[in-house]
Write a structure and sequence with these properties.
The chain is mainly alpha-helical. It has 13 helices and two strands. Helix content is about 65%, strand content about 0%. The protein has a two-stranded antiparallel ribbon with strand order 1-2. It is elongated and about 85 Å long.
Amino acid sequence: MRWLALPAGIVVLVGTFLDVFRTMVMPRAVRGRYRLTRVLFLAVWRPWRLLALRVKTQQARERVLAGAAPMSLFVLLAAWAALSTVGYGLVLWSPAFVHGVHGSGDGSFTTALYFSGTSLFTIGFGDVVATGLTRAVVIVEGATGLGLVAVVIGYLPVLYQAFNRREVGVLLLDARAGSPPSGPELLRRTGESGGFSQLHELFAYWERWAADILETHLSYPLLVYFRSPHDNTSWITSLGAVLDAATLVLAVKEAAPLHEAQMFHATGVHAVEDLFFYFRLTERQPIIERDEFDQVMEELGAAGFHLRPADEAWERFLKFRGKYAGRLDALAIMVAAPPAQWIGDRSTLPLQPDLQRQPRH
């Protein structure tokens, strides 16, 4: 059966290299239900998430969840290295190259596997050596090991730079929208400070932020699971809060709606939609009671907003929010984001005191 070793090794290596290329090099989303990266990440994330949801306090839960994405990255790197070692080991053990491997245990698969590992990591103890054409395989494997390390070294700075850009926006929103963030709270605080003119700049900034999220989080989907270091918040609930604020402006503001709010709403909906479909989620049915919406209308009116008639505003609100609400909730539930007003699932997470009056989704 040794003749199967060469084609089997080539299949393993090609599959591994394609996964590395698609995950770390290709600047676009790569779909595929059975890709190695997706299978390995879900194998880490699902039990990790279930364990975290059993933790009693939210702070402890966030500490547990924060380790999932970085740990899955190391698991993925270890899997790539292990599969490369096995693939080259099978090639070296095949009849075409096994006679060029010399050392203790000549001809055994364990010797070929050991030689493959020392070659991949360019250790070269010298107790097993290659001759003839087998030297070419060993040289290629050494280059593969160096290339894998180089790709990883280049990947990590890009990943964390995108993460840092994302979290700057989340942190700046904290003082404006509360923690957890809330769209109505964002508008109320803006109105109380007499800064409705600031909404132009805010929505323009978040339009660029949402576009950056769409590009980076589809190119590097692992970023979706990286937790915010700030308490009671998440990039998903932050995006949802500003989307809710833009939706309220478009729905309840009596005068012509802000152009920046329209542009951000379109970009934000696009980002939510693309991420929702990439992760193959099931849309949820969010529930917002009319009396809560009327209460928000009263607060905005007190803050200085010129409002539309209540029934007209309610219909417009449902129309604009229906474009993203169910999909945003699905994303928030997928990553177990801390619940915020109108966003997330409180069926498995204990309500915080400041969220007691919010409806369950």
